[in-house]
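Input chain follows. Return structure tokens only.
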Amino acid sequence: QVQLVESGGGLVQPGGSLRLSCAASGSIFAINYMAWYRQAPGKQRELVAYITTGGTTYYTSSTKGRFSIDRDNAKNTVYLQMNDLKPEDTALYHCAIGPSIPTMSSTGTWGRGTQVTVST
């Protein structure tokens, strides 16, 4: 089974940028959806962005225009470029891969997450 390892999180000031990486232990070429989720303390996990095998992308409204997702099939890696970060972006960010977004929780493969903290 493919395993996922996220990296790139950290502490950044408001307005700063981070680039998260999610490296898969196996091929991602045939994986329909690769997605980033986040969960802030006391809040439900939310979908941040996803990218399909065909390159179609989706962003939640709060990150559209600031975040960018892309995938490198040759490196079995998906990235999340985050610009103009805000304190409300603070959360534990997970990547997940799977056949569909609605069933990702039950059918997807998840990484353990990387912490992003936006603060002065």
